[in-house]
Design brief:
It is found in: Nucleus. The chain is of the alpha+beta class and about 350 residues long. Helices cover about 45% and strands about 10% of the residues. The strands form two sheets. It has a five-stranded antiparallel beta sheet.
């Protein structure tokens, strides 16, 4: 939260924090549009008119979505409200199904399992993610990237992917970065449906609250997902063969680089270490699946923007070219989720997310 927001909290708050229904740092449920999402109460305030508001961070979402909300939108996490969350999600699925019944996207994988209800099982508490129909509307008008653009993107990803052997930065280079002019703030991100946001919030709840981990390896691994995406692109334009392969390799390499430092909760680190203890040459893109791929896509723009030589236009260009992959994952999410299950984490694991 910005310093300005913090000052506003101190200025507006007129009663002790003990009097607020929701405490600072408390995990809650919060309405955003017609659905309820897992969230965290960051601050509370009460203005001169005795109106109480809470500063909410939606779990698994970018901080740009943080906002002040009235008390009427915030709920305690209990069985009754979790059921209300499921009912609203089910109702949205039903409504979306009626609207999209006459539509059939050619981008959806031809599989008899795609139309069946699937869920992410969470042992011990019966929590699950029900299906919601995903809009077939194009998320990006410029969905077809040229061979040259895709090639440029794969080259960009290669340049921006840090090499493991050169991960340590010298003090001299750090001081040079400190002297660099301030960059324009980049807030561009991928367009993602409420279903995907709910999935990521549920993932956070499973790992951080329920102390569970995604069972590995996943049948639909990241390599499998990217290969299927590549096949679909080749069917649309066979001339994109080499450039699309380079693009997919760039995304896979980026996942390899960011997985351990940026995409795992602390409770998942032990699981990660055990993988490499059994096989030092293990390929994480053959082990992890759609949940972790979505985590990458959420932070992808922010990570790209962090590089000193990347300006706003370049980030937005790269996001535009990768947006069709996001759309592909959304359209086929039920197929990719059909084998995703959560299991109880080791007692040695911690559940605080990485920064």
């Amino acid at each position: 939260m910005s310093q300005t927001a913090s000052k506003n909290v101190e200025k507006d708050q007129t009663s002790s924090t003990d009097e607020f229904l929701f405490k600072e740092g408390e995990k809650v449920l919060c309405y955003h549009g017609p659905l309820i999402y897992f969230a965290k109460c960051m601050q509370a305030r009460q203005d001169s008119s005795n109106v109480v508001e809470y500063y909410i961070h939606y779990s698994g979402w970018n901080k740009s979505w943080d906002e002040w909300v009235p008390i009427s939108r915030v709920l305690k996490i209990n069985d009754e409200n979790l059921q209300k969350q499921k009912d609203l999600n089910k109702a949205q699925k039903s409504e979306a199904g009626k609207k999209n019944k006459k539509k059939k996207s050619s981008s959806v994988l031809n599989s008899p399992d795609t139309s069946q209800n699937t869920s992410i099982s969470t042992p011990g508490n019966n929590t699950s993610l029900t299906n919601a129909d995903i809009s077939t509307t194009q998320l990006n008008a410029d969905g077809k990237a040229s061979s040259q653009n895709a090639s440029n993107l794969s080259q960009d990803l290669g340049e921006l992917t840090p090499k493991r052997k050169k991960s340590r930065v010298s003090e001299s280079s750090s001081s040079q970065d400190d002297q660099a002019p301030a960059k324009e703030k980049i807030t561009h991100s991928f367009a993602m449906s409420p279903r995907i946001k709910l999935l990521l919030a549920q993932d956070w709840f499973n790992v951080d609250v329920n102390k569970q981990l995604v069972k590995l390896p996943c049948t639909h691994s990241i390599d499998t997902i990217l290969e299927k995406y590549l096949q679909e692109q080749l069917e649309k334009n066979k001339n994109m063969r080499s450039s699309e392969k380079d693009l997919i390799k760039g995304i896979a390499d980026y996942f390899n680089t960011l997985l351990n430092p940026s995409l795992l909760y602390l409770s998942e680190r032990l699981q990660y270490d055990e993988i490499f203890k059994e096989d030092p040459n293990a390929s994480v893109t053959k082990i992890y699946g759609v949940v972790h791929l979505l985590r990458l896509l959420v932070i992808f723009p922010e990570k790209l923007a962090a590089y000193p030589l990347v300006d706003k236009q370049r980030v937005e260009h790269m996001i535009t070219k990768i947006q069709p992959l996001v759309e592909f994952v959304e359209l086929n999410i039920d197929k990719f989720l059909c084998d995703v299950k959560y299991e109880t984490a080791s007692t040695d694991s911690q559940s605080k997310p990485t920064s």
